[in-house]
C-alpha cells in the first residue's frame, strides 16, 4: 500500500492560468505502473472539468522510461493488465477534448514514447536523450494501439524502423521522425510548453473538440473495442 501511494504521489497536479499541469517525478525513471496510470486518469477527469488545456511534464533528464518493469515481470496477467490500462489511458489522451501538450524533459522510451504520440503538441529538450519505441528489441509484442498511434503520428519514412525495428532517436532526430514537434534548450522548454498550452487552450473549445473527434475517434474506438483480443496475443519474451 505504501509503495502504491508513493507511486501515485509521484504525479503533481497544478492548475495555472487555465492549464492543468501534470508533473511526473518519481525521482527515478518515471515508470508508468498501475497506480500511476490510474492517477493520471483521475487527473484527466479533473482537467476535463476545469482546464482549457493539459501540459504533461517529466523530471529533468527523464520524461518516462515506459511501463513499470517490476509489474511487467510479475507475470503474464500483471503485464497484460498494465498494458491494457496503459492503452486505455493513451487512447483517452489521443481523443481528449482539450489540447494536450507534452514537455519531453529527457528520455522517452517504450510507453514513454507512446505518451508522446498520444499528445497533440510535443516539445522536447535538447540533449543526449533517447526517444523511441524499443518494445521489439526488449522481446515485447507491440500492442496494436502502439502500432496505430505510431502510424498516425510518425513520418511514413521512419515508421517501419521506429515500430518494427525499435530504432532509437535523439531529440533533434525525433522531430523529423514525428515523436516531437520541436526541440529547444532545456532552459526554454517549460516556458515555451506553457505558452503553447495556453495558446491552444484559447482555441474555441467546442470546435477544437469536434475537430479532434472527427480526426481520431474512429481509430480510437476500433482500438478500444479490440483491446481485449489484442491482449490475448500479447507476449513478453524478454
Q: Could you say what the CATH topology is called?
A: 2-enoyl-CoA Hydratase, Chain A, domain 1
Q: Would you identify the CATH architecture?
A: Alpha-Beta Complex
Q: Name the CATH homologous superfamily.
A: 2-enoyl-CoA Hydratase, Chain A, domain 1
Largest sheet descriptor: 6 strands, mixed
Distance between the termini: 28 Å
- Total strand segments: 9
Count of alpha/pi helices: 11
Briefly summarize what is shown:
The chain has 238 residues and is an alpha/beta fold. Helices cover 52% and strands 17% of the residues.
Protein described:
With 238 residues, the chain is of the alpha/beta class. The protein has a single domain, classed as 2-enoyl-CoA Hydratase, Chain A, domain 1, CATH 3.90.226. It has helices spanning 2-9, 34-50, 69-72, 76-94, 111-118, 144-153, 156-163, 171-177, 186-201, 205-225, 227-232; strands spanning 11-16, 19-24, 53-57, 61-64, 100-104, 106-109, 121-125, 131-132, 182-184. Helix 4 runs parallel beside helix 5 (111-118). The longest helix is centred in the C-terminal third of the chain and has 21 residues, at 205-225. The protein is globular, with a radius of gyration of 16 Å. The two termini are 28 Å apart.
Amino acid at each position: 500500500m505504501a509503495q502504491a501511494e508513493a507511486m501515485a504521489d509521484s504525479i503533481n497536479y497544478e492548475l495555472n492560468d487555465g492549464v492543468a499541469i501534470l508533473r511526473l517525478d518519481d525521482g527515478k525513471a518515471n515508470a508508468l505502473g498501475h497506480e500511476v496510470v490510474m492517477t493520471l486518469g483521475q487527473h484527466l477527469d479533473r482537467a476535463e472539468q476545469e482546464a482549457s488545456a493539459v501540459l504533461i511534464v517529466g523530471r529533468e533528464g527523464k520524461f518516462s522510461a515506459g511501463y513499470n518493469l517490476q509489474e511487467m515481470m510479475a507475470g503474464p496477467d500483471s503485464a497484460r493488465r498494465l498494458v491494457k490500462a496503459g492503452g486505455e489511458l493513451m487512447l483517452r489522451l489521443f481523443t481528449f477534448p482539450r489540447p494536450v501538450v507534452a514537455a519531453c524533459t529527457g528520455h522517452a522510451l517504450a510507453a514513454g514514447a507512446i505518451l508522446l504520440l498520444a499528445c497533440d503538441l510535443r516539445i522536447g529538450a535538447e540533449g543526449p536523450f533517447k526517444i523511441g519505441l524499443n518494445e521489439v528489441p526488449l522481446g515485447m509484442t507491440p500492442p496494436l494501439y502502439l502500432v496505430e498511434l505510431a502510424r498516425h503520428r510518425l513520418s511514413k519514412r521512419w515508421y517501419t524502423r521506429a515500430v518494427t525495428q525499435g530504432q532509437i532517436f535523439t531529440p533533434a532526430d525525433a522531430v523529423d521522425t514525428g515523436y516531437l514537434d520541436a526541440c529547444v534548450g532545456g532552459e526554454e522548454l517549460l516556458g515555451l510548453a506553457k505558452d503553447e498550452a495556453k495558446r491552444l487552450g484559447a482555441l474555441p473549445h467546442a470546435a477544437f473538440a469536434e475537430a479532434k473527434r472527427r480526426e481520431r475517434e474512429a481509430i480510437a474506438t476500433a482500438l478500444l473495442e479490440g483491446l481485449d483480443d489484442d491482449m490475448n496475443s500479447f507476449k513478453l519474451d524478454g
